[in-house]
Structure formats: structure tokens, C-alpha cells
Amino acid sequence: MVPDMEPPPAGPSKRRPAAAAGLASAGAASTGTARRATTARSATSARRASTVRAVPGGPRRPGRLAGLAELVERRPYEEHWVDIGGLALHCEVHGSGPRVLLFMHGILLDTQMNRRLAGDLAERGFRVVLLDLPGHGLSDKPRHASAHRMDSYARLVLALMDELGLAEAAVGGVSLGANVALQVAVRAPERVVGLVAEMPVLEWAVPGAAMAFVPLLMGVHYAAPLVRLVAAGARRLPHTGIGVLDSVLTTLKLQPEEAAAVLHGMLVGPIAPTYEERHNLFVPTLVIGHKADVIHPFTDADHLARQLPDARLVQARSVVELRLSPERLTAEIDRFLDDAWRGRFDDDRGAARRHA
After folding, report:
1. R_g (Cα) of the chain, nearest Å
2. What's the pTM value of the predicted model, to 2 decimals?
3. pLDDT tens-place string over residues 59-68
4. Which of 131, 135, 228, 350 is the most exposed place for a label (fewest CB within 10 A)?
5. Which residues are within 8 A (CB) of 299 and not within 5 positions of it... i.e. 6 or more apart?
6. Span 140-147, average pLDDT
7. φ, ψ of residue 93 in degrees (nearest 5)
């Protein structure tokens, strides 16, 4: 449910419709005057602004700073908060049109890490919805582990699609987001046009994930005063406009109880669909893996691509290629989504002719 809009602040801003209605329509507006509206994050939380951002471009800087300037995301997007089951979920909309990709971040990160990808795909004609999962970014942060199980996230994603008026969409994500996308497809394959799974986590990753997350969970629990001190310092740091860096800064702002709940939820719930579920998941899938990470071993990506009936594997050159040098992988995602949506539209037209 999306509450009624409050009057916009003074100045050149204009009113806009409720968040869910805006998302279900043609999508994000183009550059121009920022428009503001507010929705309630939850029954007990403060009012938030839903904003169309139009960040003006700056001049290119010579020398070494030229490459750094290219990482600063300046393209406009919309922000929305949607209430689902008492949780306020934050999402961004980049681009417009009927071909939608709902994409999710990695564990303890947020939408900012994928803004450049979203902007690039929006320029190619897709509408990209970036979601902050509960406990992440600007979404509500429940402090109990059951809210952060993979299957709980998958149910929320499907409920979000209902709220946004999306009968179907391509779904994907990186790491945590990739696994949530897989769980969504297992639960509602008829609603998933295609899957984009970057760095999925399957059985081979369990030892590495345990070595990383269990000490981290113990650290945020037993070193809570230090974590709070780091969070207080991180809140004083300005945003840089570089998505990956700002996403890490947001992670550092988490309270220890918030981070612990997310990590605990990952450990108590199912990580990935079962072997049998993967073999019976007839959804077009693009799997992206790399060979330099014990938490996301290439073996898992390779096995997933082999187990899914309609999957293709692309090897990234590094864990940060899609964030820092994205042209090659973005082109692969663009081609995959184009094929997946063309196939779905062809199927719909064929079904319409059969029922005519």
C-alpha cells in the first residue's frame, strides 16, 4: 500500500502520483526539474521523499581523473518506497518501457552498486528497478533473522512485483541478489522472463562463505561498540557519486544489530534452490562468474549454467569488471535481455493468435 502524497516543498518542484502507480506506468521521467512526493516508510517511521533526480553533468577532467569521473553516475532516476507487509521497501527506477529488469545487490550492500548498470541498460531501452532488500540501503531493517532468509526475500520480491503492477519481469542480481532471483524463479517461473545471475552462491561456496560470514557475525555481535563507532564516523562522510564506493559507505553505517540480523538470516535459511529444482527451472538464464573469489567460486557459476536447462555462462575478467569496466558484460546482458523479451513477446503473440 502506498499512502497519499503530501504537498511538495516550496520551489519549482511538482506533484507526482503515488509510487506504485508511477512504477507501473511508463517508468522513469527524463531530466528536468526534480519532482517530490512523500510516502510512509512504515507505520512508525518518519516520512520519506520520493524523488526524480536529475543530477547535472560536469566537465570531463584531464589526466588520471578522467577515468575516475566516468565512474560518477549522473543520470536521472526515480526513488520510491512501497509498503509490503509492514516493511517499507526502497527501490529506484531507471529508464522506461515495458521491458523490465528487477535487479538486486549483494549482501550488506545496496542499490548504489548497480546504478551504472541500470543507467546503461536504461539507455538501451530497458526499465530497470533496483531494489534495496530488507536490512539494506534505505529499506526498513528488521532485527530478526527470519526476515532475512533467502526464501523470505523471494516472497517479498513477488509481492513487490504485485504492488508495482508487474505481471512479469526479468529478475537478477549479484551474489545475494542472484540467489534471491533464483528463488523467485523457482516460486513463480511463469512471471520471470529471464534470469541474470552474477556470482551465484551454491554448494561449492559454502566453506568460503562460512569462513567469511561467521567471523563477521561474531565480530558485529561481540564488538558492537566498535561497530557503532565506525557507523558514526561513516555517517559524517559525504557521498562521492561513485556507486560501488557509496554502497560500501552505506554498509559501514549499519548498526551492529542490523548487520547481525542479515548475516544470521543468511546462515539459517536455504541458500539456493535444490539440485532438483535447478534441473527443472525452464527460464532463460545468463550466469556471470569469475575465478578470483572463494565466496563466489567459478565452479558454482559453471555448475549452475550446466544444471539449468536454458542457461549460458559468461566469465568475467574480475569481480569488479561489471562495476568499473562494464562495457563488455553490459553488452552481454543487453543481448540476453533483448532475446529473452523478444521470445516472451513472440510467445504472447502466438497465444493471442491461437485464442483468436
Report:
1. 20
2. 0.81
3. 444 444 446 6
4. 350
5. 204
6. 95
7. -120, 125
